[in-house]
Specification:
Layout (H helix, E strand, L loop, with lengths): L1 E5 L2 E6 L13 E7 L4 E10 L2 E7 L2 E6 L4 E4 L3 E5 L3 E7 L4 E6 L19 E6 L4 E6 L15
Antiparallel strand pairs: 1-2, 2-3, 3-4, 5-6, 6-7, 7-8, 9-10, 10-11, 11-12
């Protein structure tokens, strides 16, 4: 799905560690490979649903657990949760910028305990105060795959 290199390690996010996502088995994970030995180090994190956008920010791995609408960091704990399919991540030192795509897979959530947004846009998260802003994009735009803050 996505990949990210830190020193001699390659991190790869995938919808299914077993390769069975097309059979509706979402055993998502992030795998680490050693680029020198070309060997699999092992899963860094498992039990994700459609993970995207691995990044190293301030010495901590960050990843979006997309279908759940979660931003993971700080030992891969949930540090932000949104009612949306999250994909696209950047950080400017103060704010996280998180892409929100139209959720095509909301029926897989099988839950009635939260609302699910179908809008496409950009979430801006102030992690210190746990405040968010949402910039909605034109409804004809369905998906965001990546974000990059340009100063």
């Amino acid at each position: 799905n996505d990949c990210f290199v830190v020193e001699d390690s390659l991190y790869i996010s995938m919808f299914s560690m077993t390769g069975n996502y097309q059979a509706d088995v979402f055993d998502g994970c992030v795998l680490e490979y050693d680029l020198v030995t070309k060997e699999r180090v092992g899963p860094v994190v498992q039990n994700l649903w459609m993970p995207h956008n691995i990044q190293m920010i301030n010495g901590s791995i960050h990843i979006l657990n997309s279908l759940q609408g979660q931003l993971l960091s700080n030992n891969l704990q949930v540090i932000g949760e949104f009612p949306a399919f999250t994909r696209g991540l950047d950080y400017d030192g103060l704010y996280y910028f998180i892409g929100q795509s139209r959720n095509r897979n909301y029926s897989k959530l099988k839950t009635n305990d939260r609302n699910v947004s179908l809008d496409t846009g950009i979430l801006i998260l102030n992690i210190k105060n746990k405040l968010t802003r949402f910039i909605q994009l034109d409804p004809r735009l369905n998906e965001i795959h990546s974000l990059k803050i340009v100063k």
